[in-house]
What we know:
Layout: H1 14-23, E1 31-37, E2 50-53, E3 83-86, E4 91-98, E5 103-106, H2 109-112, E6 124-125, E7 130-132, E8 134-137, H3 138-145, E9 155-157, E10 187-190, E11 195-196, E12 201-204, E13 208-211, E14 215-217, E15 222-228, E16 233-234, E17 240-249, E18 259-267, E19 270-271, E20 280-281, E21 286-293, E22 304-312, E23 317-324, E24 326-333, E25 339-346, H4 364-367
Parallel strand pairs: 16-24
Antiparallel strand pairs: 1-2, 1-14, 2-4, 3-4, 4-5, 5-8, 6-7, 7-10, 8-9, 9-12, 10-11, 12-13, 15-17, 17-21, 18-19, 18-20, 18-22, 22-23, 24-25
Amino acid sequence: MKTKKIFLTLVVLIAAFVAISVAKAGSTYNVIGWAGGWSTDASGNYSGVGWISMNSLNCSSNGTTITNSNCGTVGTPVATYGVTFDPSTNTFSGYAWDSTLAQPISFNSADVSGCPSRGNCQATVDPNGNVTGWARFVGIEDAANAGNSGGWDGWISLNSLNCSSNGTTITNSNCGAVGTPIGSYGVKYDPSTGNFSSNSLADSNELGFIDFSGAYAVLPPTVTLNVNPNTPVDITALPEKVTLSWTVANCDASKGEVCTCTASTDVNGSPWTGANSWTGSKSTTNGSQTFTFNSSNLPPSTPLQYTLSCTNQAGQPGSGTAHIDFDCTTYACGSDGGCDKNNTIFTIDQSKCSSACTSSKDCISTNLDWKEVSPN
């Protein structure tokens, strides 16, 4: 681990971050969990960044005050902040919070523009899952702009490629002493799972390595609905029971994935709140409900469709649907003398279900050619 020495006279204006947070209070963020670093100086004294919260949801169970001591003083107001991964651009943005230094870390393009390396300044995931670019301690940046940072600049390199043009030694002074050997490090992220790899290291030249393996991004809810039996309800054989079951993935409260799920029903494309409709808030994990259909509570037409729509704390939606058809089968006398299936009709109107026969015996007299034969 690198040895670093913290510049103790750094003045951080926490109120500035609170103001930023209030301005963004309506925003939502999909990266949660923790990063952290625990470097020591040459004397063995702790000098790292400590715990870094990627989302204010880590810090408060009530949404108002800090309830997690790793985020600051318990009972004090909690600011709203967080980091977001945008799959459309493969970039990270937003703020994390370092309670040890009592300042935000920015992934926003405005704060990392003019970064000290070639390539992307904003944290960007390449096709191989490597995160390139930079983040920056906002308080150190402000102190540097005021000439009060002791020569620190607050840059966090997310990949060793930022620091070397030859792959062997440091060629970027923001990463350490130019000409010294460079170790290979980097943050790795899998957009398909939302996980950072187990060895996702970034580096602050002033404060040491930062491990991002404890952070992850919540993914959109995945909703699955099923009906059993998965066959049309025969309206000539009522009553019939149908069980609707559902499962929701990526809404695990134990991982900090906060979702809300709401049910709705429509009939042939139009909203329906009558008999055997399914509405209101539902479990964000799994559940089931059984409906009994009889001649007095059929929907006005077919099909009857159930929908469960879920949204997570990042505003990402997911939904699933299942539908129930209603039908009957008509029969007619066939050329073989049997009562044969004639037609299947999707309907809730029993008057359309009349048949010419109910069994083969109804067809015998119309299909047999009787002849009298004299005895031998």
